[in-house]
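Subject: Sanity check before I submit

Could someone independently write out the structure tokens for this chain? I want to compare against mine line by line before I put it in a report. The sequence has 174 residues.
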Amino acid sequence: MRALARPAWRIALWEMRGAARSRWVIAAAALYALLAVAVALVNLRSMSVLGLRGIGAAVDGVFAVGLLVPPLFGIVLGAGAVAGARDQGALAMMAAQPLRRGSIVWGVFLGMTATVWAAVGIGLGLVAVVTAPAMTAVDLAGLGVAAATTLIAGAAGVALGTLVSTVASGRGQA
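---
Independent answer below. Compare away.
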């Protein structure tokens, strides 16, 4: 089992490094962080105008943004991963190595999922910093549930995109 996992992790690290250098990935992560913080601030402001405490409405808004942006980000990342490697010839190079095809696909999935999760972590971390003064213990649990749901939705988007990428003949079709 350990020998099978090692190549997948190396491919995952390689994919993460490649994604981190992409201006598109950086822009999408910044967009998610900006949207999450903006929604949280707007909802906090509306709560304070009403004289209410806590960040319940802000968590609801962040939850809604988290169910939209990270899955779409994951689908696009996953769709371009295997098909893009095939177009560039990197997939042929990896397939020529003594690796199982499942390790290659698993590594691509792990790398793209970690990239989406890093973007979500940055965005939700900024939301936590911005909303910390108004946060209660109950709100912290709600933010944790929103974070877990967003991470799962992002991974599902990457899985769908990777599936499309493996059956597509090229990046354009994916």
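---
OP: Matches mine. For the report I'm noting this point. Residues 56-88 form the longest helix (33 residues).
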